[in-house]
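Pasting two entries for a bug report.
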Amino acid sequence: MATYGGDEVSALVLDVGARWTKAGYAGEDMPAAFFSSWVGAATEQGASANAADAMDVDAAPQNDAPEATTDGAGPRTRYYMHAGGAAPPWHENMEMRNPIKDGLIDDWDALEQIWDHIFESALRVNPAEHPLLVTESAWNKRECRERLAELAFEKYRAPALFLCKDAVLTAFAAGRSTALVVDAGAGSTRVVPVYDGYVMQKNVAKQSLGAHMLSEIILQQMETDMKITVTPQYKVKEKQPVETEQPAKATLHDRPNTTASYDHYAKL
């Protein structure tokens, strides 16, 4: 059995959050990849139901997107991701999916697509050649840890895997092994005590309120209280000039079969 330790370990660090995903090499100052955790999923006809799912990475070179098989007549799910921070460009019948809910993995298909994007497009590495360090919440469940290990070893053939509490890593990043970590994220807010590199599980406090909730409240106030029509960028075909202090005007695209989840995400 191989033993990894010291500065020579070429481990990959994977941190998938409710809003952002960070990935890179252990020991470096900054993540090598930083992109949105939201994944677009569109069901298409004309592909074999047994065909492998395809993923398109928008705003990337054309040859980066794996080709989809089109034989057969069954439905196929095609995944879309954006290399930057915005939503994936509009596609018909595309639902927006997020792998994280309340700090736990809720959508394993979306998580797998994010890992695929990290290894194949963002870092361009073979995961079988690098140990993996994957962050987890302080209240992660055993079955979730087991499934992460199954994914890392059976699909990606990683030589080693280490699951580490995100609060512990935050404390270490500040040069502390003992700290009270307050993390206000997109999907939740938590206060986690860390003592000598270990999380004190019984003293963890968390709320399922975060930046997502604040964005929802602001959007609701704009549309309901202030009577402001929020037009997402994907609908705008051409902007029109207006006088000072006048409402904006624009010519809009005809976007049939737009899902409610994509329209709502684009507004935020």
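Entry 2 (this is the one that rendered wrong in the viewer):
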Amino acid sequence: MARLLEGSSIALLSDAGTPVVSDPGLVLVRQALNAQVQVVPLPGPSAAIAALVGSGAPPHSFTFVGFPPRKSNDRKKWCLDLAAETRTLIFFESPHRIRATFRIARECWGDRQVTICRELTKIHEELVTRPINEHISTITSPRGEYTCVVWPPLQSFPVAVPLPERSILQHEFGQTTNKSGSRRAAVKEMAKKYGLSTRDMYTELHKSP
């Protein structure tokens, strides 16, 4: 702050992505604003926004809630406080607590759809969308920080998630079948994603071209 008040121009950089987003940069920004020093934000990498864009979750209204509390009792209260939230939720979590957090979240939110993201914009980038219960059983060796996008309850979607063209839908079905190991599981997963019953999803997939 002393350098700023002397008239220096200072750039605030962070190796954790955009400063202020789950980063202590907020302290310096507020001090600068309180001292009538102009703060110029520059667009940069943000895991929260990248995850939202890549998840396919409704982006019309969303909220970023940072990291869940470390202690399990506090984490449960955190989940309960968010249980009635109808917007898409975005939060960060460490690999050491991701499964425990999902177990508590399942109790409080039900088996909601969640997209988990790791290594965003890197070679080993990973985005996986599944119900919470499936994440609990498939995350066996968690590594790296997770960005989680929690889809809102189906009834709270502002608009239905539109079905893509038939060729794209068929391609997605093939990929989902390979990932889940069975056609039935793939139909169920896609029906949940697009807000359809399993029967309606099956009908869409088998429509004549």
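Dev reply: Rendering is fixed now. As a check, the viewer should reflect this: The chain has a mean pLDDT of 86.
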